[in-house]
């Protein structure tokens, strides 16, 4: 449904009369800023943008949107905006104004409002020697990340972030503010742990924190010409590692940008990044086989958990990008050869990064009751991405993503929501029995399909 200018103006006024937070309509100054996603390649045109300041504001947005026959699309940062598209006929609920964080060291819990980013959590948690299951970038919102699975730097030791969700405050499509926990609405909690944002607008979360006094983490760089050798050695290395070590093998084409330090700027590398939960001596012992390959640069050092956000060299500001990912049922030498042939040295690949993350360990031990996507039984995960400053660049990146995906099709192990960035990846995201249960719950909590997630679970017809 699209909404005419007059109705949009009326809708904005109606929302303003009910909300303490900010409301921006298409005619208002600041509209382009308000409708923006972190991924600047996504052009969102919602009917209006509401920026709630409280759970009551969120209830008001859901009620008003529903009365206009509009859908409701919650956004934390817009890192995962690509699969959701233009948002025509929806109210965009920008949660970034609700970002309070409280650390409860006694119970090892973080209580956060739904717009909090990981960088709001990791510093305060580290003051108590605690860490949450954050991912590679500090400005990703905890909510979208954890609802979609969330594979971070300690995933092999403590599992996916979805499994660390203890309780969720959520406004459902009928405007009720519910608390989903083991004791109340346990089915809803199950769906929210990895089933994504289809079940309501989350206003707050409680997440487990873990005692992580020290880490030894860093990056090893080799010239990309050695990609096959490095990826082979890395894969071999991952087959017998303690759960305390989480790592990834990666091909990086570093952009030619002035702000990037000289030794990296404009060059192509094969890279291993890793985080060891423990001290330098233990981490170094584990890393020895990789160091024998003689990396050109070795940045490993003891760090506190907030330092993990620097490891992956993610862009510090919003960028236009196109990416996609898949779980890999295996990563044998044939798959390594396929990766190198599709996007390795000499292929003129427009991808900034192609990475293979090592899973296993605690990731595959969660029980089905722990959450819709609390466990993954694939040992590796691929994610590839390119920046797309212009339409031609987008086409080149998309074609290369297709090429990578088809080259790795023999090892396709499914998807993890947080690494599925294309709309065409929305089918087959869950095993059939999980998808069935998620649809039943969507039908129970949102029969009219008001809530619009980036990866949608639809109510039963
Ligand atoms: C640079 C970068 C680094 C990343 N690193 C990792 C990583 O290490 N590990 C990993 O697993 N993923 C990673 N991701 C993927 C990221 O976790 C997903 O894009 C995630 O969806 C981002 O959540 P968000 O809330 O920040 O983004 P958004 O785009 O705002 O949200 C994504 C979706 O989450 C849902 N959602 C968000 N907030 C709410 C809410 N309050 N209520 C209901 N639903 C909500 C909605 O369905 C929304 O469409 C990375 C992405 C980028 C771009």
Walk me through the structure:
It is a single chain. Helices cover 28% and strands 23% of the residues. It is of the alpha+beta class. Strands 12, 13, 14, 15, 16, 17, 18 and 19 form an eight-stranded antiparallel β-sheet that branches. β5 (101-104) and β6 (109-113) form a beta hairpin. The longest helix is centred in the last third of the chain and has 17 residues, at 391-407. The two termini are 19 Å apart. 54% of the residues are buried. The protein binds flavin-adenine dinucleotide. Flavin-adenine dinucleotide (FAD) binds at residues 74-81, 84, 95, 114, 135-137, 140-141, 143-145, 147-152, 196-197, 201-202, 314, 418-419, 453-454.
What is the topology?
Blueprint: H1 5-18, E1 22-24, H2 31-34, E2 48-51, H3 55-67, E3 71-75, E4 90-94, E5 101-104, E6 109-113, H4 118-126, E7 130-131, H5 142-147, H6 155-158, E8 165-171, E9 177-180, H7 186-192, E10 201-208, E11 210-211, E12 215-223, H8 227-238, E13 245-253, E14 268-277, H9 280-291, E15 297-298, E16 301-303, H10 308-311, E17 321-328, H11 333-343, E18 353-358, E19 380-387, H12 391-407, H13 432-445
Parallel strand pairs: 2-4, 3-4
Antiparallel strand pairs: 1-2, 5-6, 6-10, 7-11, 8-9, 8-10, 12-14, 12-15, 12-16, 13-14, 13-18, 17-19, 18-19
Helix pairs in contact: 1-3, 8-11, 11-12
Q: What's this entry about, in short?
A:
Helix content is 28%, strand content 23%.
CATH architectural group of the largest domain: 3-Layer(aba) Sandwich
Strand count, sense and barrel status of the largest sheet are: 8 strands, antiparallel
Name the structural class. Answer: alpha+beta
> Which ligands occur here?
flavin-adenine dinucleotide
Q: Uncertain regions: pLDDT < 50 for 5+ in a row?
A: none
Number of domains: 3
Broad shape: globular
- At the first level of CATH, what is the class of the largest domain? Alpha Beta
Question: How much strand?
Answer: 15-25%
Strands, count? 19
Computed over alpha carbons, the radius of gyration is: 22 Å
CATH topology of the largest domain: Vanillyl-alcohol Oxidase, Chain A, domain 3
Q: What count of helical segments does DSSP give?
A: 13
Helix content range: 25-40%
Mean pLDDT: 94
What is the terminal-to-terminal distance? Answer: 19 Å
């Amino acid at each position: 449904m699209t909404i005419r200018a007059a109705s949009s103006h009326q809708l904005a006024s109606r929302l303003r009369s009910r909300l303490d937070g900010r409301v921006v309509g298409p005619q208002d100054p600041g509209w382009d800023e308000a409708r923006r996603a972190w991924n600047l390649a996504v052009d969102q045109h919602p009917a209006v943008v509401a920026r709630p300041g409280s759970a009551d504001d969120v209830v008001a947005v859901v009620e008003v949107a529903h009365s206009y026959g509009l859908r409701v699309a919650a956004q934390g940062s817009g890192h995962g905006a690509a699969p959701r598209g233009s948002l025509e006929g929806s109210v965009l609920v920008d949660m970034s104004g609700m970002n309070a964080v409280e650390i409860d060291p006694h119970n090892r819990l973080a209580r956060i409002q739904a717009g909090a980013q990981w960088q709001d959590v990791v510093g305060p948690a580290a003051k108590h020697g605690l860490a949450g299951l954050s991912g590679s970038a500090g400005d990703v919102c905890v909510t979208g990340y954890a609802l979609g699975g969330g594979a971070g730097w300690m995933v092999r030791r403590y599992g996916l972030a979805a499994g660390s969700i203890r309780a969720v405050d959520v406004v459902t499509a009928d405007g009720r503010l519910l608390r989903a926990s083991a004791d109340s609405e346990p089915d809803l909690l199950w769906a929210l742990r990895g089933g994504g944002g289809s079940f309501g607008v989350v206003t707050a979360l409680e997440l487990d924190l873990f005692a992580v006094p020290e880490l030894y983490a860093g990056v090893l760089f080799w010239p990309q010409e050695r990609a096959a050798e490095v990826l082979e050695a890395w894969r071999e290395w991952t087959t017998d590692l303690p759960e305390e070590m989480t790592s990834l093998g990666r091909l990086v084409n570093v952009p030619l940008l002035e702000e990037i330090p000289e030794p990296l700027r404009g060059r192509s590398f094969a890279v291993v990044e890793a985080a060891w939960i423990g001290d330098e001596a233990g981490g170094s012992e584990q890393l020895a086989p990789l160091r024998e390959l003689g990396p050109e640069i070795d940045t490993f050092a003891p760090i506190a958990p907030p330092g993990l956000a620097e490891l992956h060299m993610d862009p510090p500001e919003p960028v236009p990008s196109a990416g996609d990912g898949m779980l890999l049922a295996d990563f044998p030498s044939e798959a390594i050869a396929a990766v190198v042939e599709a996007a390795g040295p000499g292929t003129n690949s427009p991808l900034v990064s192609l990475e293979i993350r090592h899973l296993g360990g605690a990731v595959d031990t969660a029980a089905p009751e722990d959450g819709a996507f609390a466990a993954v039984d694939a040992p590796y995960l691929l994610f590839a991405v390119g920046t797309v400053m212009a339409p031609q660049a987008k086409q080149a990146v998309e074609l290369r993503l297709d090429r990578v995906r088809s080259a790795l099709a023999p090892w396709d192990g499914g998807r993890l929501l947080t690494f599925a960035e294309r709309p065409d990846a929305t089918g087959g995201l869950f095993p059939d029995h999980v998808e069935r249960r998620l649809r039943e719950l969507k039908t129970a909590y949102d029969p009219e399909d008001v809530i619009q997630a980036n990866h949608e679970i639809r109510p039963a017809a």
